[in-house]
Design goal:
Length: 391
């Protein structure tokens, strides 16, 4: 048997190259990486070196059963010097002529997310040194994979959010509308805003925040956004729309929590009907003095009590006045010498910035310039300014 090559992985290599390095380091004929699926019940082949047919057949291994399933189920290495003496669920391994297997768990943040195993075409006794070597390599592969997954999820979330959040809100006669979405310095979340026309002449305005970070909240945000638009076509009351949305989330998106502010108005836009599901109330400005928070009942956030009755509030907006919707990331910046989170200070800063601006676009620029630190924000920020143009 050839002596193992030195233990080393190139962090700049792709996954197939890393698995080839694993195979060569252990002087093995195959190296396979399996990942726990979304249900947490089975392992699915993800990548391999020397056993590509494994991926094409898509053989799934129940956790707790067979060789790889035992590795994932126990979180410990498993050695099979002769696979004929043990249970191997994947028939491809036998058909390929594999005789001996060594598998170790892939672990990240204390949880097993997959299995890395190597195999040989000739019978071999894997030693304690082999086990340690593969365990060390698995740690490197796990770290590489986590970094790559984070980057890919971040990119996917950015692409998804860019496709769903309007850079330029639709032109609405009688209104001057501008919005901004500022991603956090790190994982993206589920913040969004939306502006859409309805067939009866009304216009809908949405500000929302799906709790969590990464790709999944962004995906859920897309589904919530689409559902809200659909319900708004058949239900004129924002409160009823949010109640329908809450039932949908509680049933189909179990475990999801979100805050949403939904407002509708029709020309001449002298009043808006607003309902809040756990979201910060909007600010209203008259164009002369600092903006003030709307006296709005804040109902329960979505995902908690789907049968709870929700309320609508009529909010008057004077000619030349503005309505400002935002997510909590905007006002929960750190203020003062102690750099403490002070939402009241954040609200005051937004109110002052709105009063000093004459257009919706200028308001967005001023608010973000005054509140977002130069080093970036730790939470996503969504902002929507709706200004009623003078007749």
């Amino acid at each position: 048997m050839p002596s193992p090559t030195p233990l080393t992985l190139d962090p700049g290599a792709d996954l197939r190259q890393l698995l080839t390095s694993v195979r060569e380091t252990l002087a093995a004929d195959t190296a396979v990486m399996l990942l726990v699926d979304a249900t947490g019940a089975v392992l699915e082949p993800f990548a391999s070196s020397g056993l590509d047919v494994t991926l094409r057949t898509g053989a799934r291994v129940p956790i707790g059963r067979g060789f790889a399933g035992a590795v994932a189920g126990t979180g410990r290495p498993v050695v099979l010097d002769d696979i004929d003496a043990g249970e191997v669920v994947n028939p491809v391994l036998r058909r390929r002529g594999i005789r001996s297997l060594l598998g170790v768990p892939l672990v990240r943040d204390g949880a097993v997310f997959g299995v890395l195993h190597v195999g040989t075409l000739s019978q071999r006794h894997f030693t304690a040194d082999d086990v340690q070597r593969l365990t060390d390599l698995a740690d490197e592969v796990a770290s590489w994979f986590a970094d790559q997954s984070l980057a890919e999820h971040h990119t996917a979330a950015r692409v998804l959010q860019r496709s769903l959040i309007p850079t330029l809100p639709p032109s609405i006669p009688g209104l001057d509308v501008a919005g901004r979405y500022v991603p956090a310095e790190g994982d993206l979340g589920g913040d969004w805003y939306d502006v859409f026309a309805l067939p009866d002449g009304r216009v809908g305005f949405v500000m929302g925040d799906v709790l969590g970070h990464g790709l999944q909240p962004a995906v859920v945000m897309g589904r919530i956004r689409s559902a809200l638009r659909s319900y708004a076509l058949i239900e004129p009351s924002p409160a009823r729309v949010l109640q329908m949305l809450d039932r949908k989330i509680s049933h189909f998106e179990a475990g999801t929590l979100a805050t949403v502010l939904f407002a509708v108005a029709r020309p001449p836009f002298d009043s808006f009907v607003v309902s809040s599901a756990g979201h910060w109330p909007p600010l209203v400005a008259d164009g002369r003095s600092p903006a003030t928070a709307v006296a709005l009942r804040t109902d329960t956030m979505l995902g908690l009590l789907p049968d709870r009755t929700r309320t609508d509030t009529v909010v008057p907006v004077p000619e030349g006045g503005s309505l400002c919707l935002f997510t909590d990331g905007l006002i929960e910046q750190r203020f003062g010498a102690e750099q403490a989170v002070d939402p009241d200070a954040g609200l005051a800063a937004v109110a002052a910035s709105l009063a000093a601006s004459r257009t919706a676009e200028a308001s967005c620029v001023a608010v973000l310039a005054d509140l977002i630190p130069e080093h970036g924000t730790v939470d996503d920020v969504a902002l929507l300014v709706i200004r009623r143009e003078p007749t």
